[in-house]
Fold these 4 entries.
Entry 1:
Amino acid sequence: MTTRRLPGAGAELNRDEPFTFCWNGAPVAGFSGDTVVSALLAGGHDVISRSMKYHRPRGVLTADYWDPNCMVQIGSEPNVRGAHRLAAPAMDVRAQNVWPSLRHDVKAANALVGRFLTAGFYYKTFMQPRALWPAYEHVLATFAPGGSVDLDAEPPRCDIRFAHPDVLVAGGGPAGMAAALAASRAGADVLLVDHGHRLGGHLRWGSGDDRARAAQLAAAVRAAGVEVLTDATVLGRYDGSWVGINQRTAPGVWERLVKARAKCLVVAPGLIERPYVFAGNDHVGVMLSGAVRRLLNMYGVVPGERAVVFSANPDGAAAACDLRSAGVEVTVVDASTGVRLERVEGSRRRAQAAVLSDGRRLDADLVVTAIGWTAPTTLTNMAGDRPVYDEASARFFPDRLPPDVLVAGGLAGDGSVDELVAHAHATGAMAARRGLTVRAQLRRATPRADPTVTSVPPDADEPVPLGRDPHPALFMAGSHGIVDYSEDVSSKDIVDAAAEGFDSVELVKRFTTSTMGPSQGKLETVNTVAVLAQELGTTIGRLGTTVWRPPYAPVSLGALAGRNDIPRRVSALQDWHDKHGAVPLHAGNWLRPDHYGDPAAEAANVRNAVGVIDVTPLGKLDLCGPDVADLLELVYVNRWRKLAVGAVRYGVMCTEDGIVMDDGVTARLADQRYLMTTTSSGAAAVWEWLERWLQQERPQWDVRVTPVTPAYTSINVAGPRSRELVAGLVDDIDVSPDGFPYMQVRTGTVAGVGDCVLLRIGFTGELSYELHVPAGFGLHVWEALLATGAALGIRPFGVEAQRILRLEKGHFIVGQDTDGLTRAASAGLGGLVKLDKADMVGRPELGWAAARTDLPMLVSILTDDPSVVPVEAAQIVEPGTNAIRGRITSSRMSPTLGRSVCLGQVDAALAHPGCALTIRLPGGAQVGARVHDQPAFVDPEGVRLRG
């Protein structure tokens, strides 16, 4: 062939925009709209990769996102799907999992010992002796597939978005577009997500009329106001139609994770063409009919010169027709005649001949199969459905779906494009009715809802089923071939697994690793089931499929992590901190002063004189309404109904399973107004927690929750001289011990600024006042405190000094000294929990925990050697062994005591005062310690903070 490009062909290409990129260091020509692989094939590059285990040459199989043979490295990005990724100018593309080159891969020597690399090889070979495991691990790592990660490369920018559509349609083929269009016209907010770069599904690689129909539907969808995400994949469906979407080409970012709460989900992913299992089916030049039509009609690439098409359906006939139109010599083997494709022969570089079951040998450099489809029921499986096999159609179908999940297109049945569109239109209208009904129900159930919200008539209709066309059950020839191209698993491996007693598809999956590769079972699952069923003498329907779990398609860790450049929150005092030498601390989303040069000296100054710290990140929620006390009684473990106006109380929140969630103080400012403070990291979670209980569980309560964290600049004034300092700046508040006692709140004027809130509390263990000042006047009040306190020995202190002080006092931090398993009793809060309350969150679990005597306990710990400060998370072990009995949660050198102090969680048997402990340090050294006789190391009687 003089060229592999058809003149003027390729609906996806813009031939006015040619460019070149590099393939293994050599230039390759392409056009705008080309994928990496379509450009490579057009340039005569047939071998794209090497197989995982045997390193056999691999070429195009499906020419789409699911192609297991087209993984490449692009720049510093490994494991890129080359048959899907669009080529770009100057792109550096390389083969991966090869050495030293794609053409001459030394690892191909694995094929010489292939008969020893059977299913379960790793499990059987690398078990003994255990002492050699490090060597085994090194060898296995050397042969691990995939590309290379450049740890020095600039990480790509990702982000996260939240969406709340009435209807979410997964799949942008003709059925998906019709469903989205109908739902939008019915008044629903619709989000349409498609795997491809453009809408259209299988119409994109069909005839000219097909492509025109796709363009017409796509234009109507956009005109109807449907939001469309292309090059995006619905990753999973969770409870309540919570849907995750990986958007790969979002504007301004590399990838975006969309978290959508869909009121109704329409699953319309189309069908995935299934490979045929036969000897030599992984030779370069063996393709599916869909791959051939994509290459010809979308990219104008002729994939071979002489083709054999093994066809059992109209798609095979269409592929043969397209090949003939491109000038390819074609021989069609019609499956209805009973003749089967038995094997393909070829060289290391390309297929050369197809051998049929009747003994004929047909010369061919291109072997095309069209033997059936797999219905990707993954998302419906995630909705709780188990698919049912239809013998007549030779594929699985969804069975019993929840009301908020509907199906359209090939997943629902068969028919012409007009029939599929008509069915999908009815499905989309039904989805809109169901979604709008849920929307109305949610709005009516919300106390702050617009009372004029109108209801939508409930949908009592059941989806009208589509017909199902008969199709021959063709899965495997009389010879063994590859079942899972990603994992190099053959049909013989599955037969061997069955012989070893693995008679469940779930067990065979794990033993052979079939379906566990990047294709996620889309191409392999049904063939795996078919081979196993044949070997066991049962049917595909009885054997069933594996359970598909999220994600539907692999997703990068970057997309899951979200933004790596999260905007930092700062207080109104941040410029002052920067000018005065504060060392910054990134605490969650906040930038805070860690210290100003000497945290130990800062802590000592608080103990001996007075200090000020910026505590603006403390969560602050303004609670108003007649039912606030009821809300506090519900979410806190202690009592709140009798909290007097002007009083402050400490409270702990637990989750429904009794785990400590957050703590803080809440002050009653007026009869129906309270100010709640939370931990800095828990502010948003607590706000959402309160709203959840108000909106979903107690909508009848009249409570308004307003987050006011950034509205106030919060300053803690601490130390034995703090009363003198505050008294010099207020003239409308009596700060005497009797006028403003411990655990009280006052409102008034500070340094001439009104509407300030003052709390008399003491996280540092010293006489303290927490000042909440309108943020616009925060710097003024801060500087006034420093100026007035100069004669009192004032100095600012940072987060590190605060942590030293609180640890000396024995105060724990939620999330540091507690974890996701810590119950209130374990944190020493048993006396705070009031189990005789009428109701509170987590009450049953809290009651069970209170009755237990085996829970780990949080205790204060002193090391035998006072100079040793164990690292946080150091393990507390059984003496003489490495049996873990606890861990250090907080540790510091105390400037007040001149020795180390710690908090730690230990087994209940070790929690009594004076109990000897052994702490294992990094490097293996051990140090003795003992449980302190009380929580506080400094001022256990509380004289200083109550003074």
Entry 2:
Amino acid sequence: MVLLEQKEVFSKPNLVTLLSPIRDRDYLRSLVNPTSTAPDAGVGVIDNPFFFVAGHYPGGLLTPSAPEDRTYLVWFGSPAGTTNEKPQFSIFYAKVHPDQYKPGAPASQWLDPPVLLVSYDQISRDVVNWADNVFTAAGYTPSSPGVINVPSNVYVTNYGYTNFAGAPSTVTLNFTGTPELKQLHMIYDMLDDTVLMYFSIMVPNWNPATKAQYVYKFPVSLLKSQQSVNQYAVSGLTPTTTSTPPPNDKPYFLGWLKFDSTVEQTIGNALGTIVVTTLQMQSAPQFAISFDWYKLGGSMGYKPSNGFLPAIYVGNPLYMVPIDYPHGDSLMAIAFADIHKNPAQPQTYYQPIITGYGFAMPAFAALPENLESCPSSYNGYSYYCIPILGFAGQLDTFDLGLNIDKFGSIVPGESFGIHGAYAIPITLPPRPDWGGISSMRMKMLYVAPIFHQFQGYGGLSFAWTRDSVEIPYYPEMGTCRPYLTTLPDGKLKVTMGGYYADNYIDGIAIYMDKSVISPKGKTLVTVPSLIFGQTSPGGSYYVIAGANGSNVVRHGVVAYTFGKKYARVYINLNAGNATFVNIYTRYRSRTAPDLQQMYGNSPNPNNTATYFPSVERNFGTLAYATDYSYSMPFATSYPRTSKFRVDGQVLWVLINGGNGPVWVELEGD
């Protein structure tokens, strides 16, 4: 009996095919609503498959009635005669019948016929129309549809920066041509029973100032009636739709994704183009966005019951000098208080932190619950309002770094053994120009608030697995765009595109144990992220950064430890021979810095968008200084500290030198 049970366990599949251009050719040809550009649902290439639940209650929170099954499979499909070398991806969907799903079963057994959601040429038309509207409203008339000439040193309303390293005095933005879909994330908006479809594209004439991330909104009824965005061809609302939710009567293209101007301009002023190629934060196609399951701003009232749809965003906003290829080397995580009212320009979550130093606790003392905004003063108290975000750049200039190719889904980490953090599977190749071997592999990324137990959130921190995660071994296949899910059969799996050497891709699922996703037993790598400070309640903002080089911003000073017991700090290439590192491994004392001590400061006079904490050479839990012989001015390797014990949730790393980010290796459970 035991042998029979073992045989049954071993026979369970690790890898199964969801959609195959070979096996499911006839099914893919049965497209409900074909067009000339999307004649089939992916007979050439299938990629990016994932399961999506478009809510359960018809009417959402407005007028809910009896629940119903609304599970769909969504994917990229390129028609017969194409390969992944030059795909022509459109987006398709089909309703799932979970009771008929069996791993490896033909698609026709458990899916309704495929339906076109939106074709690539419709996306192109909508992007071009939106670009023309935005730039015309800003005073820049297109020279032809989708082609705009803009000065390189301007910040365009409803668009953002147009500047990048080496840019000519006039930058040409060209949004025309066949776009290639890169990422797709769908969020159900229960406030009006709609779907927010965030996606990214690369256009043929892309440059580092070109937007890549966009959003559609459409009612769930479109999916239920097997319709497409093409049937409506609604190419957008006006660029000034900011205060009220877009209608929910039909599909709308809402334009490109944009952070609020305070976030964009503070980071842009701090970084410039010395460290990064471009200041246009959505020019990179890599990103992920999800409903904020933890509702980080819940105490402030940012939750659906109050009319807010909170979200968490993680993306690669910027490129480094001098390489302009679409594989990102930076990370930005940001908490949105609301994406319902204006999905394309979400409301950033600003955390109130009381200005009274010392024994005030918690950070929002004297504030009532569900205030739904961050006040600079209330009931006789003053407050800083700190945007909850974290930013780090130049992540691929180090042996332990990462160069992100695609993000997967964002899911809460509790189920995988990491509390208070989000887990995100990512795929990445190393940079070939830095001697790496370009091989697609999967790692895990974790995002957590930098939390002071009495004084509130200060920002967001991230860490990733040093080594690739152990998924079932398939040497003949690469992986791309991984989504974690238990749909439709209740078993943990990652759905993704299975990539082969001849550019053939099909849609697959790899079943795995949750230990694969858990950080337990794994070494993590993090970089102290840049977070924000405010000069005074209601005042201007600055970036809290470590000072190195000639006051060039390269890294922050505080990182979350993600439950690990031990750390080792690395100093990046070209560290000075007198670089001094001051490390605080526990919560604040009389001598240690804390988040509140980072607020209410005057920015550095040499860079008025930054504040550099001073490096005290005789304080801290651990002090470290580099020491090179022969009077060498710089190290040509990566100096590092010894492994040391971490006693708290946050780790402060203050440094006075170095030519790149400070890296922290975390281990021990």
Entry 3:
Amino acid sequence: MTRAHRSVTIVVTVAALGVTLAATKPAQSYTPATHAEMGAIAVDRSNLDTILRNQYDIDRGITLAVNGQTVRAWIANGAAREDFPGIRSLNHFHNPLKAWASAGGLLGQSSVYWQQSPDQGLGGTWSWPVARQRLFEFLTLPVPAARERALADTAQALGQVMHVVQDAASPAHTRDDPHLIRDGYEARIEELRASRDATLRARFQVLLAAPSTLPAATIFTPTGDLQAPAPVARLIDSDTYGGTAQSYATGAQTGLAEYTSGGYVSDDTIFRGFALPRRESLGPAVFDPPADTPGARRYFPKTTDGDAIGHFVAEGALYERLLFRGQLDGGFILDDKVYEDYAAQLVPRAVGYSAGLLNYFFRSNFDFTVDVSPLDPSKRLLTISIPPEVSAESMDGTFTLYAEDGNGLRSLVSGASITTTLFRGALAQTVFTPVAGVRAYVLVFRGKLGNEQGAVTGKVRPMGPLVFAVQATAEFAGEEQRTTVTEVDNAASLIVIGRRSKDERRQRARGAFFSATTSDPGQQLKRVALEFDGRAVGTPAAQLLLDGIDVGVAWSKGASVVENPSRWEIRIDLPAFFDGAGGGGGLLPNVPRFLAVETMEGITIRTPLLWWRSASSFTETRGGRQSVTTCPPELQCEEVTSISTLLRGLVFFGDGNGEGRDTTSSGQRQPVTATHTSVGFVPIGLVAGHAVGAVAQSANPNCFGTCTPAASCSTSTISIFAQSSAAGPVWIKDEFSVSSGNLVGVRKPANACTPPAVEQPSAPELPELRFRRDYLPAEQSRFQEFGVTPPEHEITLR
């Protein structure tokens, strides 16, 4: 035949095929309803429900309803809709042995191109790039309803992309077999699915319930093809099968079209047109049912070149005649037993690869935190990190932070964007000014994720409910120590001293957990831990008790018999309240400074603790006599009695300086008119009858200045958490003292003096102290950021 004649033949053939297409429904693989059921099961087998709940803060996960359909249903329906209008199905073919540009056949483009096409024409564009764009909008659109609609569109697009992956598990779609009239394999699967016979329907259910082979994470390699750049194409064609038995594989790194094309035949390609499967891969024939039984037919299993299939081909009516004539590849047919044996392998793999598609689309390996900047408490530090695991993918693109308020409205956070490349184990940070009323932060990434350009992923981090540790008391745990000591007792003097004190090394602090938005804050707790001075080496002797149970110095949910604690207690029993010099020469406290509470959402609130540093009182009584020879004889013996008292206490602030005091870094004290000082506490009430802030000093100088027959004098000094300065009173919130002294004396003749006598001293009672929690500007900024009001409460030290 001449070249001209060959050209005419081709034109006529194609024209005739076009006439056929015009009169015949376009080729389809599994029916839309079968695609929908496989899609729904794929959703269940995937990680999507967990991802929606944990990564995107969608409490209902795949059961979230949008416009009357759940996310699961949107995916399933998308898998069904891909065949409408029917002409779309012409793009659902892929021969893995051809170049991708021609792998779809004469009538359509390859399915690896179609699933990434930017313009799919009739029926709309529901490709991988569209799914990526709608996911970005789901993460970033301001209004909740619009975001939910974007999620539904994302789900539908993924269902339609999933459809062409499932078609790669149909032999006709991978072996250039357009099956314009009917495909026996697909027809049998639909017959089982739609059957009203419970037995037949159960066989379809068994196919769906069979274990799925999910694709390996390593299958998603670069394609190098501009029309199908996303590695999702590798689910269909991994470019590893070259048409030979040596290159054929059945593992999880094999593209689905490669697995199907090399391992199975279609009605019109039984051992023809393709090197695999081969006639030589068949084992000895087996009758089913047994020979000489009505309906007996001879079947040939496939025993090599891939998965073993019990009913691989059956003998047809011409089998014996063709075999007699030496045509070894002829006379075979496919029937329902063959189709069902094929489906036992192909349907579960189609489901597994569909689940793998969802896992790949929604994958994410980064995390982020938003914390108070250590350099400026009014700023926030955004930290983005990628774990060090080998499986973690690099990220090259832009991370952008959004804030969601209590009404669900999302907005861009100014200054909180980072364009960078992050590799495994790396992190990036930026500082930004927080906005008010944040219910959740949303970090969105767009760029290259692993091998995929144009990827989109994100994470929603809810900020509440916040849980606070509220301290109610701090009290000495040991008995009060009382002593009375006679220090001097002779003919001229008698000195007796009475003391009271408590042991600051043994204390306990108590409190509860509080949340403004839930009546059971314990359910929201993830971790509770004592925090000690950063200079400390090792863990000092302290016990944390939650609901009366000792948990050491830290508790984590799920790691203790305590589940949802409501009360806390800290006990200390120390060899010394302070150790020797810490860093910089200061004292090193052994008491816990903070009680840190982390919620299930990862928000940590550090509550500074309040402790006694010391408390003591002292009373001294004196009696004495002495000669005064410079006075007249009737005044030469002086009898004097005196009483002196001192009440003093020191307080330790967890958020104070290295020694727990209320001073600035330069050691300065704040005026009592200041709104705040360096610590988050304000003393209130009375101490030994004196108001907080009282500063006074008095003295009576009438004390035997001359030869007078009698004299008395008194002194007092009062400093109740304050002291005088040149500019006025300043706070000393960590210390109070009250002292007084009274002296009475008479002069008598020398022969009339008597030995001194005094009363038994009684040291003043140690007082209770009251403090109001005063949230500092940095803390208030945090609360304003989250739109919460912290609890107002008092702490009693006793």
Entry 4:
Amino acid sequence: MVTIRRACRSVRASASAVVAVALIAAVLTPAALADGDPGSDVLVYQDLFAGSDAGLSVQQQVQLGTLLKAAGRAAFPIRVAIIASPFDLGAVSGLWHHPRQYARFLGVELSLAYKQRLLVVMPNGLGFNWAGHPTDAAYRALAGIPIRPGGTGLFNATEAAVAKLAQAGAVKLPAAAGLAGPSGGASSGASGSATGRSGQGGTDEILGSVALALVAIAAVAFVVYRLGRRRGWHRPRLSVRWRLQLAAHGPRLAIPGAALAIPGAALAIVAVAAAAVIVVRSNGPATSQADALATNPDLDPGTPVSGVAPDFSLSDQFGQPVSLHSYRGKVVILAFNDSECTTVCPLTTTAMLDAKAMLGKAGSQVQLLGVDANPASISIEDVWSYSELHGMLHAWRFLTGSLPELKQIWKRYGIEAAIEAGEITHTPALFVIDPAGKLSRLYMTQMSYTAVPQLGQLLAQSAAALLPGRPPVHAELSYARIQPTAPTQAATLPRAGGGTVDVGPGNSARLFVFFATWDQETSGLAGELDALNRYQATAKRMGLPPLTAVDEASVEPSSSTLTSFLHRLPQPLSYPVAQDRSGKIADGYEVLGLPWFVLASRTGQLLYYQEASTAGWPSTNVLIRYVKAALARAPKVAGATAVNQDLADSPPPLAALHQQADQLLGGSSGLAARVRVLRGYPIVINAWASWCGPCRSEFGLFASASIRYGRQVAFLGADTDDAAGDARTFLSQHHVSYPSYQTSTSRLSWLATIQGLPTTIFIDPAGKVVYVHTGQYDSEGTLAQDISTYALAN
């Protein structure tokens, strides 16, 4: 930290110097967050900046955002500034039509927060910057890319430039990023853009030095003025809030876009130093929040979007006509929601309600809207039923119309909505629209119950920023990832009707069914829970794992909803009903929709799961059969130190794998070397990540298969685009009889093109890749069939 005395020695004894010292002394205490110029402000936390005049459609903006996230997951982080006019450059409009110079300038501006690749796209050319790296190779790769007029021209040039740069870096990106949304059970994961942030202490020292340098410059400028010398320079970047309003008299310096009185020039430069310190010092908590947000895989920080929100007219849950333009003057939070969804949509709508509540009285200036995104359920009754069961009947307008009308709206907003293999898939998009009807921000809901309040706070903050007077948000939640409660951890939950329920490791395995009362919309919830009384009685008689129901209270309409529902059941339930009010249990037990069955071993290992909303509720006999089968195939390996009896006679190369059970080993080169060592044996490589829901769901199948086939087949894990700490935590809770190697999507390209996670690669004894399975294995049978076909057949 710079001291006042040291600053004083850097300035001439003059009135301006005294004021300068006072200014710097003042800013060394926390101050309000300052605004910045458009591009650098946005790119501190986001991958893409596209000015409002760029002319990009919503679909193009979403597609670019998806492409940049894919690049991040491929260990090729890159951020893009699309500069369509001088207005997009703010205080440095003199850099208009100078993309290379602006790229360098932007790299310096972002250097405290981001040190990776930067691409600048202007109508007349491209710029590139990567701190500490030469740019010659990048500009050779970018040479010849045409930039045609208009938004589509900028969009096409941006896509081509990112692809060329990735290619030059030997990184293979998906051929077409497409629009964001689920596909084929493979998880896309979270954005992998890397940031390199310095600590606050280091930042203070850097800023102190910068401030001192600027003060020295101020002194020189003052002397120069006294000598009557005149020089021209660009106006320094200074936020609007802290810009000096100097007297408009006296001789003037030539400064593009502004004019400053020479007697105040030195003071103005000192003010720049002061403002720089103010901005970063005041960003302490905000930067910490941004760091947390950038590293939270369960929370989308949002993507800036621009342009007028496409208008539409549909009917709400009461059959009343509603148009988007009728809400001009209000902030609109618009969700595309499946009217029968039991997975991510309830998380979205709960977050919307949270956002409005967090705004207090200002919430009256925010309108919640939903548009049905289920092609098979678009009746008024469908949207009414969802609204009623989720406690939103009078809290929002859930809109529907004819299928052609809805398809047109989906297309205009870049929403994918389709029926695939009998299941509804759609883009879980949330748009924030300003009072003038212009798009502001796009969020994608992640499948995490614990992150719902955090998403609500993000939405509330986005809405507040668009409202007059910026009303306060009545919440102070951290954006750091909330650690879930794994089955290996003991926890106590409140029990419906009074008392508590203990979960976690115990004397025996335990069966759980997670549900919410709104499951009534898609199944006979009351009857199915009543039928589980028969399982509980049979389990007690046969010594099977007892049943515990868990109500996912984190997404229930109110605290009284469960009580009312249980009172309406034909008879009391013979098993306990716990309440998961935080979502930590659901996330820890890897619940990806409701209702959801989970069987946990006595040590907390997950042995079996079933999503009843898609697979259907199992009958008592079927459930008993599933439970018995899961217990029979449960791996007995409890980590690297205990090798299962079934693997004791494995050949030495395979036995060496078993001795490294559950270990996370380093590097793609290590994986390649291991594959070479295993020549002569068939190999199954499972590419996974701890943040990938489908990966977690199928992991138990590989644990079982590796025990069953481990004396003939070499199993390996490839922990892909993941944090080592998260991966090790996951492996400590999900035991397998083989090691995993930490790698990335791009570094697996020597084996196969990874289109998403999970991916399973089958290699024959000669070392040739014979099959690549993209997506999740749903059952032990399908995995066993592929092992027999592609591993053992050779």
